[in-house]
Design brief:
26% of the residues lie in helices and 23% in strands. The chain starts with a helix and ends in a 6-residue tail after the last strand. The N terminus is likely disordered. The protein is α+β, with helices and mostly antiparallel strands. The longest helix has 18 residues. Strands 1, 8, 9, 10, 11, 12, 13, 14, 15, 16 and 17 form an eleven-stranded mixed β-sheet that branches. Helix 12 packs antiparallel against helix 13. It is globular, with a radius of gyration of 23 Å. The protein folds into three domains: 122 residues, Periplasmic binding protein-like II (D-Maltodextrin-Binding Protein, domain 2); 111 residues, Periplasmic binding protein-like II (D-Maltodextrin-Binding Protein, domain 2, 3-Layer(aba) Sandwich); 207 residues, Dipeptide-binding Protein, domain 3 (Roll).
Length: 487
């Protein structure tokens, strides 16, 4: 029945059906009702392939006072899916949800906000409590999800989604599918596909079989196509396989609050025992990129190449005092789509060979979050992103002892550098500060970058021009049915 429905929906080549390995429905309590990959909502700014800032709903921006006040000029002619125009007043009302309800402020930057208003038509103005020269980066993508303010309740919940993107929401079946239709009055023009369906297919083999059978047109998301599946797809010439290096860096993170990894030498010892070239070859089949920086290399301004492997070193004396079983913590959602279990097994074997017992603990999101916050782990394998295109996000969220998921490692000088870099207006001085921070991370190892992710996605013969960007957002506006003549 499902296959018949998919084929019928595709009749005429106007429905694009995508398979993804997670549910893009976030619901009323999500930061945004649907994931950004659905192309249903937009932000003020976006990042290009080199993580350089580009216009989106804001066509330009400026700071008249060196980073304390930022003014964004909205595009003209943008409409919400209900046909009402996007105004500065509507954008302010939408974004104030993040101010009044901090649980939806995933970037944690609204704490630095003094006020947000619309001083004149088409102008959105932020006044800050401190100077932030890179503030437009903070409002890229998830930093400024603009939706119709009428969909937001007094307690901050989103009852539905009315955005400005090329597709608008028809219906959701949580855990199963999201159905969208083209927005005829989209500000860039009408999309080529009349409708889009996102199907949640958690099992990687099931996604692949659905693609081969034509039940879905594409698999597009990070972790959607596994490296181990590439050989199968190579024998399917009708399926186009594409690759995209992403802004994600996979890390081994230490709990520096307790022994053994409270000891810097223990952190350096374990890092020295991990052959990252062999690891990447084994778990990604040579598709990942061994990390030379603590975050993506795609932003050349911030790529310093400072992560240098140590020669293997002997086990430090502090290891002798550890009698308990060490815990290697994994997030269930990531472990199902990324080779974290295989990496954890490599780390577990290294520890066992050194006489240290270790167990791998895979936990569902709520339990994982509690374990991270309460320090009930010794090692975590997980991703860090570069969502704002600026290093401040990485150091403030993953290195600082004040970070939401701090490892417990504290260096007062580093804390000072992070704050100084965040407000430094001179580009070269700011770059030098981040180079210094990068070198300190290499020396102290609060975390050990393993590799930068290269994602694979694929589509069948009924689709062309389907691309995915470095923050794994598919461009559903520019893709089109294969039978449609090129403009």
């Amino acid at each position: 029945m499902l296959l018949l429905w998919a084929v019928a929906a595709y009749a005429g080549g106007q429905t694009l059906t995508l398979g993804v390995g997670r549910d893009f429905y976030n619901g009323p309590e999500g930061q945004v009702y649907l994931h950004g990959s659905t192309n249903t909502w937009e932000g003020l700014t976006r990042l290009d392939e080199t993580f350089t800032l580009r216009p989106w709903l804001a066509e330009s921006w400026e700071s008249p006072d060196g980073g304390w006040t930022w003014r964004f000029r909205l595009r003209e002619g943008v409409r919400f899916h209900d046909g009402t125009p996007l105004t500065a007043e509507a954008a302010v009302r939408s974004l104030r949800r993040l101010i009044r309800h901090p649980r939806y402020d995933a970037s944690h930057f609204f704490k630095d906000l003094e006020s947000l208003d619309a001083p004149e038509p088409g102008i959105l103005q932020y006044r800050l409590k401190r100077r932030i020269p890179f503030f437009p980066n903070l409002v890229s993508y998830y930093g400024s999800p603009i939706v119709h303010p009428g969909t937001v309740t007094e307690d901050g919940r989103m009852e539905s989604l009315v955005g400005t993107g090329p597709f608008r929401l028809l219906r959701v079946r949580p855990g199963d599918r999201i159905e969208l239709e083209a927005f005829e009055r989209y500000w860039q023009g009408r999309p080529a596909f009349a409708s889009v369906v996102f199907r949640t297919i958690l099992d990687a083999d099931s996604r692949l079989m659905a693609l081969q059978a034509g039940q879905i047109d594409a698999v597009v998301d990070f972790g959607g196509i596994l490296p181990s599946q590439l050989a199968v797809l190579a024998r399917k010439p009708q399926i186009a396989v594409k690759r995209r290096e992403l802004g994600n860096t996979h890390q081994l993170m230490f709990n520096a609050r307790r022994l053994p990894f409270q000891d810097r030498e223990m952190r350096r010892w374990l890092a020295s025992r991990i052959d990252r070239n062999a690891l990447v070859a084994a778990v990604t089949e040579n598709t990942g990129v061994v990390a030379a920086d603590p975050h993506t290399r795609l932003a050349p301004l911030w790529a310093f190449g400072c992560i240098r492997p140590d020669p293997p070193s002997p086990l430090p004396p502090s290891a002798a005092g550890v009698k308990r079983e060490l815990v290697i913590l994994l997030h269930q959602g990531f472990a199902g789509r990324l080779p974290y279990l295989e990496i954890a097994q490599v780390v577990q074997q290294i520890l066992r060979e050194a006489g240290l017992a270790a167990r791998i603990q895979v936990q569902e999101p709520g339990a994982y979050r509690r374990a991270r916050l309460q320090g009930e782990f010794d090692l975590v394998i997980g991703p860090t992103g570069f969502l704002t295109g600026d290093p401040d996000h990485h150091y403030r969220n993953f290195i600082s002892s004040r970070a939401p998921f701090s490892s417990g490692w504290h260096d007062e000088e580093v804390e000072g550098w992070i704050e100084e870099a965040a407000s430094e207006a001179d580009p070269q001085r700011r770059r030098n500060l981040y180079r210094r921070l990068c070198e300190r991370v290499n020396d102290e190892r609060p975390l050990f970058p393993l590799y930068h992710e290269v994602a694979f996605y694929a589509h069948g013969p009924r689709v062309r021009d389907l691309e995915m960007d470095a923050v794994f957002r598919p461009d559903l506006f520019r893709c089109r049915p294969a039978a449609e003549p090129r403009p």
